[in-house]
Design brief:
Elements: E1 9-16, E2 22-30, E3 54-58, H1 69-75, E4 80-85, H2 101-114, E5 120-125, H3 127-138, E6 143-149, H4 158-170, H5 178-188, H6 197-204, E7 207-210, E8 213-216, H7 220-232, H8 236-240, E9 246-251, H9 258-267, E10 271-276, H10 283-286, H11 288-302
Parallel strand pairs: 3-4, 3-5, 5-6, 6-9, 9-10
Antiparallel strand pairs: 1-2, 2-4, 7-8
Helix pairs in contact: 2-3, 4-7, 5-6
Length: 312
């Protein structure tokens, strides 16, 4: 596919999520000249509408919508790709709770319905992938296809939760500069094995500056609550209930092992499998071109596009 170098304008939409919390959804490839925010997104075909197939991009825990900007812009000629800041992340509100799978799922339903994206392809990374396949299982009327990126269906266990909590406590907060945060997460963090500058860039994007330095935008206690369902519960039954085409993508050095990924594909009624070399857990950012090629190939096979969609 040719490289697109068009000038993009970012546009933010408001979404009312579970419990009335305010969520931010982003179009990182809006047409030039459109204002930053609008009360109503374009819906459907016809004058002033948008008949490209909808795509909803869901980040993982520790992520934010802006991590998806490059993917959204790559997909934009053919698809209306919007990224959601999930509760507790990015520019969305940070309530004290709930941070349950049910709350994340309700927020995703609200985003699809309020943004007029159905039938939507849901692309999720890590925690966002779990929400993506739960959305497809519980609301098949809204979902055309799913892309699962490096998320396990098996329960992780209490030891994993304790290890993760110890890791977040080891962060040397606050960071004096944004460069310090980038270097620590990319080079000095014991979990950065091997060191990876992409990882440093990824975490630098979720930092915000306060009076004493740079800290993550989210509250660690909210992150731990979000992880609870991964620790206690397996999600094979919901995976088996996903009737639409579903692509499972893993990086060869990621958290989702090959055997489990292939079992997920077997359990899925319409499962597809892809793995990307030289990529870890942060597959879309470690290998952005291979990631986008993989996703686009899958979407061309399974998502029907209107005749007026812009060719790649």
């Amino acid at each position: 596919m040719k490289q697109h170098v068009d000038q993009h304008t970012t546009r933010r939409y408001g979404v009312t999520g579970e419990g009335g919390i305010r969520l931010a959804a982003w179009d990182y490839a809006a047409a030039a000249g459109i204002a930053d925010a609008a009360a109503e997104p374009p819906r459907g075909s016809g004058p002033g509408g948008d008949d490209r197939p909808g795509v909803l991009l869901l980040h993982g825990l520790l992520g934010r919508a802006s991590h998806w900007a490059a993917t959204a812009r790559r997909l934009a000629p053919r698809y209306r790709a919007l990224a959601l800041d999930q509760r507790g992340h990015g520019r969305s509100e940070r309530p004290e709770g709930p941070y349950s799978t049910e709350a994340y799922l309700s927020d995703a339903v609200a985003a699809v319905e309020q943004l007029g994206l159905a039938p939507v392809t849901v692309i999720g990374h890590s925690m966002g992938a779990l929400t993506a396949w739960q959305l497809a299982a519980h609301r098949p009327d809204l979902v055309a296809a799913v892309v699962i990126c490096d998320m396990r269906a098996a329960a992780l266990g209490e030891a994993g939760q304790r290890e993760w909590e110890d890791w977040t406590r080891s962060w040397p907060l606050p960071f004096a500069t944004l460069g310090d945060a980038r270097r620590w997460f990319g080079e000095q963090d014991p979990w950065a094995d091997p060191p990876n500058p992409v990882r440093g860039d990824f975490f630098a994007e979720v930092m915000s500056e306060g009076d004493d330095g740079w800290r993550p935008q989210y509250a660690p206690r909210h992150l731990l609550r979000s992880r609870d369902p991964w620790i206690r519960d397996a999600h094979w039954d919901e995976l088996a209930g996903v009737g639409c085409p579903t692509l499972v993508v893993r990086g060869l050095g990621g958290e989702l092992g090959r055997a489990e990924a292939q079992e997920m594909v077997r359990v899925l009624p319409r499962g597809h499998y892809a793995e990307i070399p030289d990529a870890g857990h942060l597959v879309p950012w470690d290998q952005p071109d291979a990631w986008c090629d993989t996703v686009e190939r899958f979407l061309r096979e399974v998502v029907r596009e209107p005749q007026s969609a812009t060719p790649a």
